[in-house]
Amino acid sequence: MKKNYNLLIFLLLLFVNINVWSQINITRWNFNGPAADAVEGGNASPSPSEGNGTASLLNGVTATFASGTASGGSSDPVDTTPENYGWNTTTYAAAGTENKQRGVQFNVSTVDFTGIKFLFDQRLSNTANNTYVVQYTTDGNNWVDAETFTFTPDVTGTGDTWYNTRTVDLTNVPELNNNLNAGFRIVSAFDPTTNDYRASRSTSTYGPGGTVRFDMVTITAESTLGLIDFENPTAFKASPNPSYGGLVTFNKAVNYELYDNNGRKVLNGINSNKIDTSSLLSGIYLLKTDEGNVERLIIK
């Protein structure tokens, strides 16, 4: 009987989340839309195409949307523009100033996920900088350098070129797992050999008006913590999940707080075994209990 029970558990795990052995997309931005002025979220804070999160510009950088298929194109499988656009940023720092200050930022909750990686496509114009640093935060305030992407400029094959699927493996940073305040930045940095900004084409001169285009910005996970519930039947559970705008019940009474994707508390309860979701907008919420449980609650 024990063997049959174990087999049942295995089959349930396989059926519920077959992606546990593969890459899971938490959030992705593809910046696509029917026109350059109709990408959802707009120039300053485009909306993700998958999952939830926020994108923003840092310290004076400005942006529009431009072709995602030009110059060989990004890794986006959409091969026409429109729909395929990239987030085209400019207004970077003057030479010799603001090292690792200007760029783009992406805030994403990794609650219920482990084994985090950050991926992106990047296209540099001839006068854009050749060096960029990816940083991460685990608390929303303090930023840590994770990886530097640079190259030696040449006459051809560097400027006006896409560098696709640049990948930062953060699976060795456990603090990014199951984290409500995870964030990632791509910032323009001094070339490590010149200690200043350097044009991406050797025959060009670096300028703040050079453009840096981003596409297919993706935060992935290796696995989800949700599988633990099958092995621990006494763990806190909320059901139904997803909810379709009605009552969600808990398997035990708890003190809870419910947060939206922007970190705002929208509901709370004391010694309660249910929550009414009828007043909530569709989206992914974070349900936290006084016992330390954190669960994603999906409202459809």
Structure overview:
- It is a single chain.
- With 300 residues, the protein is mainly beta.
- The protein has two domains: 19-224, Galactose-binding domain-like (Jelly Rolls), CATH 2.60.120; 232-299, Sandwich (Immunoglobulin-like).
- Helix content is 6%, strand content 39%.
- It is built from two helices and 18 strands.
- The strands form four sheets. Strands 1, 3, 4, 7, 10 and 12 form a six-stranded antiparallel sheet that branches. The chain has a five-stranded antiparallel sheet with strand order 2-5-11-8-9, with no helix packed on it. Strands 14, 15, 16, 17 and 18 form a five-stranded antiparallel sheet that branches.
- A hairpin with a 4-residue loop joins β17 and β18.
- The longest helix is centred in the first third of the chain and has 15 residues, at 2-16.
- The protein is elongated, with a radius of gyration of 22 Å.
Short description:
Strands 1, 3, 4, 7, 10 and 12 form a six-stranded antiparallel β-sheet that branches. This protein has two helices and 18 strands. The longest helix has 15 residues, at 2-16.
Keywords:
300 residues; mainly beta; Jelly Rolls; five-stranded antiparallel β-sheet; 2 helices; Immunoglobulin-like; 39% strand
SSE layout:
Blueprint lengths: L1 H15 L7 E6 L24 E5 L3 E6 L17 E6 L12 E5 L5 E2 L2 E8 L7 E6 L6 E6 L11 E9 L13 E6 L23 E10 L1 E2 L3 H4 L6 E2 L7 E13 L5 E12 L6 E7 L4 E6 L1
Antiparallel strand pairs: 1-12, 2-5, 3-4, 4-12, 5-11, 6-13, 7-10, 7-12, 8-9, 8-11, 14-15, 15-16, 15-17, 17-18
